[in-house]
Amino acid sequence: MAVRRFDPGRRQRIIDAAIRIAEFKGIAGLSHRTVAAEADVPLGSTTYHFASLDDLLVAALEQVTREPSSAMTDWEDVLAEVGRPAPAHGAGPQATEGRGLTLADALTRLLDEYAHGGRGRIRLEYELYLAALRRPALQPVAAAWCDEMARILARHTADEATARVLVALIDGLLLQLLLTDRPFDRQAVRSALARVTGEP
Question: How many CB atoms lie within 10 A of CB 3?
Fold first, then answer.
């Protein structure tokens, strides 16, 4: 009789494998079989830990949105600078000397960073986020992500309603960034954000 090997990290390796597949092949490339192969575990292990692909996707989305490298952490770090003097590299022509970094400046800087090198991670986050359209099990996690984004922004806006409009605008801008090859227009993006924040 074969001895079952104790492998306490197997569940985590399965989640990590699912995230890698979603990032490089999209949700369509995800199956128990492909995840088992990527994680180098027996096929039965994936169904033991995750009865359905939805269960696995929920775990993957929860991990992606809570990791230190997630967009949430980026946002919190940059938005903590709102009100401070603008850095030397600025966030566009509106970030003038002697004036604190505005919310529109900070958000423009974040989106600019995604446009020039951060697309892989944000693509993964949106790949999982948009999977919720067809997978009801993912919807509570996706809704919690939207709520967390709004909560972070609400610290810097007049009210929660403004924060939620900003979330919708940022989602739209990021999706356009991912779906088109157009160059990032920093001035136009800042102008759109400033219309919502009420900044000059």
Answer: 5
pLDDT in tens, 136-183: 888 888 888 889 889 999 999 999 999 999 999 998 998 888 888 788
What gap in Å lies between CA 179 and CA 16, rounded to an integer? 25
- In whole angstroms, how far apart are CA 117 and each of 9, 120, 195? 31, 8, 26
Question: How far is residue 160's CA from residue 41's CA, in Å, rounded to a whole number?
Answer: 45
Helix (H, G, I), strand (E, B) or coil at 68: coil
Sorted by where each starts, the structural domains of the chain and their CATH numbers stand as 1-51 (1.10.10.60), 54-197 (1.10.357.10)
The residue written with tokens 């219309």 in the block is 195
Report helix, strand or coil for 100. Answer: strand
pTM, two decimals, is 0.74
> In the structure encoding, which two tokens stand for residue 198, read together?
């009420």
State the DSSP code for 87. Answer: P
As a whole number of angstroms, the distance between CA 114 and CA 62 comes to 21
